[in-house]
Write a structure and sequence with these properties.
266 residues, alpha/beta, Rossmann fold
């Protein structure tokens, strides 16, 4: 799919992969709808993009409240925005805690934000794409949505759900002009680990060595956009073990499980 003059709605647009997607897609001529919780931050980002607020839109929303109200709210914005050609479900939150220690509320929040948020946004924007017989749904899952490791049982469960959801959606929309792309990033240099939830649901407020030494976010986003333009179905993006993990798990599951059990992820 071409990017120039396309309207792209991005959740989680205030930082990390979402922020860099705004920058790179806008540089390629896209009109961006920026969504996250922090309106002031989104406004400043939109102002910094080519064309500023005259070309891009700011729509604050909270993916933790992914219900019919959110669907109706998002659909109501289309009267001003017009057709949305690409939805990028990027908003999400990670986890760093052992299952045995973790409050059930943490699992619920991880599922609401990472999975139900993507489902609700897709529910809101897919009908108009189907009516036009044109569009693209991009969901940012994770390598954790392909393989499981310590300290991420809730995050991995939600991201596995995103992969399964997108597989089903791809099959349902294939004959209707809507393309579905699943992105599975590995360790990328963002604040995802710093903001990850601990066992009680608070941000852990520290980084991981794997993230510090991971792929630069600019490179990750270049690969995402390349996959969009080439209309890929699913891509894994990462370097080192985080990028190879799904392949190792697929062809050498026993080896992967032994490595995962012995690895310290903190």
């Amino acid at each position: 799919m071409e990017i120039d003059n396309k309207t792209v709605w991005i959740t989680g647009a205030s930082s990390g992969i979402g922020l860099e997607l705004c920058r790179q897609l806008a540089a390629k001529g896209a009109r961006i709808v920026l969504s996250a919780r922090r309106k002031d931050t989104l406004v400043e980002i939109a102002k910094s993009l080519p064309g500023g607020l005259t070309r891009h839109w700011v729509v604050p929303l909270d993916l933790a409240v992914a219900d019919d109200t959110l669907v109706t709210f998002v659909q109501g914005q289309l009267a001003e925005i017009g057709p949305v050609h690409i939805l990028i479900n990027n908003g999400g939150i990670s986890q760093r805690s052992l299952f045995i220690d973790t409050d059930l509320s943490v699992y619920r929040k991880l599922m609401e934000v990472n999975y139900m948020g993507s489902v609700a946004m897709t529910k809101a924007l897919l009908p108009s794409m189907l009516s036009r017989q044109n569009g693209m749904i991009v969901s940012i899952s994770s390598v954790a949505g392909k393989v499981g490791t310590k300290l991420r049982s809730g995050y991995s469960g939600a991201k596995f759900a995103v992969v399964g959801f997108m597989d089903c959606l791809r099959a349902e929309t294939a004959e209707h002009g809507v393309h579905c792309l699943t992105i599975c990033p590995g360790s990328i240099q963002t604040n995802i680990a710093i903001n990850a939830l601990n066992a009680s649901g608070d941000a852990q407020n520290k980084n991981d060595d794997s993230i510090i030494n991971g792929m630069a976010v600019e490179e990750c986003v270049r690969d995402i956009i390349k996959a969009m333009i080439n209309e890929r179905d699913e891509v894994v993006i990462g370097k080192g073990f985080s990028g190879l993990a799904p392949t190792i798990k697929r062809f050498f599951p026993g080896l992967f499980n032994r490595i995962s059990a012995k690895t310290e992820y903190r």
